Amino acid sequence: MSVLLTTHDPRTGLPAVSYPCATPEQVVQICRRARDAFFNQWRAVPSTERATALLSVAALLRDRLEEFAAAEARDTGKPLDVARGEVAGAAGLWEYAAALARTEHSECLSTATTQGLALTLREPMGVVGLIVPWNYPLITAAERMPFALAAGCCVVLKPSELAVGSLALLVEAMANNPLFPTGVVQVLFGQGDAVGRALVANPDVDMIAFVGSTATGRAIESAATATGKRVSAELGGNNHVLIYPDADLPRAARAVVAGGFRNGGQACIAGTHVLVDPSVADEWAAHLEQALRERFPVGEAGTVASIQPMISAAHKQRLLALIEQARPAGFVPLPGSLLDGPGNFLGPVVLDRVPLHSPLRQQEIFGPVVTVTRVEADKFPAILADNQYGLAVYVWTAATSAALAAIRQVRIGRIWVNADPEFWLPELPVGGFAASGVGREGGAKALDTYSLPKSVLIF
Ligand code: NAD
Question: Which residues form the Aldehyde dehydrogenase domain (predicted)?
């Protein structure tokens, strides 16, 4: 019998949606159905038809944007207008994947041999188990699911147990869409350590595409590769913002507030740790304080103009404990910081004069806390090289040579130079280095993640 799980509205803490958790037998049935759909249906559907099917999902997201945005906002605590933007962003990813479906070509080496032909054919990976987190359910799924489908794979989606609403709507609509044969897209609801684990272990699954924390991702990688599966994993980040002495300080300050506190700071690419050259550190602090007050004018947690709430009480408690643990090492809260709030609310918090070795800097904070460390610009590269994560970095300088040096040196997947941290393009691949993951998603070669070449010699 299935257990009922309940999500909670982060704004109120009240129960939001209840849904049945998949049983071990259902995991087996669903994965088997996906395998049948792959071999007997979707694999043989021409890519032009797959493209049409993907476009119909993009149209669905645009037509029912309000409904999807409301579900996303209720589960995650995002403001509605932010959720609307994410639904539109997700639709853009489905459209881009549809375009890619029609451009995939295999290779023919017509001159490698004087007789016959040497060529490659792309073979879809098979059944993809897609496991996503709670902070950006629709977007993280849209960065993967349409590309897997475009390549000819079938998908079994496992949303986070904390945020199911928008993805439940999506899969339900796709199940009723005749362009997707039964079993091509299915969903499994439930806890990660039960349902997610069973999906990773299931022998009918060929590949795991995962987005989530580094600890979970590493455990999944070992379990999946031990059963011969391919893995693509985008994991946590602990990202820096570099403020060189010649940076446009007011612009950079507004960007740090926008990027550091996006999604209440619960974003893998949040620019959390500012490194600022001491020659401009006081001026920088004044600009940052002003930007903070402009963005959060009410200065009261839990109000309409405030930062979005933390996903759960437990997550907020973790953040409060982290701040307390860092207190002995030292920091100075910038005026306008709110070190607590009602219910699940907390922040924004900007901590200035955070020492390099503060515990706050050693792990992914994943909350509305931005740290500022005053350190000479020539030490920035070594500090970044010391970071076990490699997901995102934000560089602010007027000097092309400094920007180029930073870009060339870092082993980091996504780099913004004097750029709006909230802007990104589906045309650019995403993924991390080191503790931030393996593989790449999106971009012009996105379908390569979900297919493999077969090499053929014909004489
Ligand atoms: P999480 O790792 O706890 O959970 C992610 C997903 O994995 C959930 O669906 C969960 O149910 C499932 N899961 C948990 N244990 C599992 C197991 N043993 N086997 C299979 N599945 C399991 O992460 P979270 O708390 O949901 O999300 C926050 C984390 O996600 C942060 O670390 C953040 O940086 C990361 N994240 C990364 C990106 C990115 O693109 N790099 C994007 C968003 C979030």
Answer: 7-456
Closest residue CA from atom 9 of ligand 1: 160
Residues 248, 191 share a domain: no
* pTM for the structure as a whole: 0.96
State whether 21 and 157 are in the same domain.
yes
Instruction: Name the pLDDT band for 303 (thresholds 50, 70, 90).
Output: low
For the Cβ of 134 lying below 6 angstroms from any atom of ligand 1, the answer is yes
Cα→Cα distances 84→80, 133, 395, 427, Å: 6, 19, 29, 21
Which ligand 1 atom is at minimum distance from the Cα of 162?
A: 26
Domain containing 366: what range? 239-417
Decide: 412 and 125 in contact? Cβ < 8 Å: no
| Ligand 1 binding pocket mutation candidate from 76, 143, 160, 202 (most atoms within 8 A of CB) | 160
Report if residue 48 sits inside a domain: yes
Helix (H, G, I), strand (E, B) or coil at 280: helix
Angle at alpha carbon of residue 226, lines to 225 and 228, rounded to 5°: 60
Question: What proportions of the chain, in percent to the nearest 5, are helix, strand and coil?
Answer: 40, 20, 35
CA distance 207 to 450: 8
Domain count, the chain: 2
pLDDT interval class at 304 (50, 70, 90): low
CA–CA gap between residue 373 and residue 276 (Å, rounded) = 6
What integer is the mean pLDDT of 9-20?
A: 90
Position 430 in a domain? no
The CATH number of residue 69's host domain is 3.40.605.10
Dihedral of alpha carbons 389, 392, 397, 402, sign: positive
Report the pLDDT value the prediction gives residue 175, as an integer from 0 to 100.
95
- 250 and 384 inside one domain: yes
Confidence of residue 366 (pLDDT cuts 50, 70, 90): very high
Contact 441, 431 (CB under 8 A): yes
Average of per-residue pLDDT across 41-45: 95
Given a cut of 70, whether residue 69 has pLDDT beyond it is yes
CATH number at residue 248: 3.40.309.10
Tell me the pLDDT of the chain averaged across its residues: 94
pLDDT band at 50 (very low <50, low <70, confident <90, very high): very high
312 CB near ligand 1 (under 6 Å): no
Cis bond leading into 348, ω under 30°?
Answer: yes
Residues 358 and 215 in one domain: no
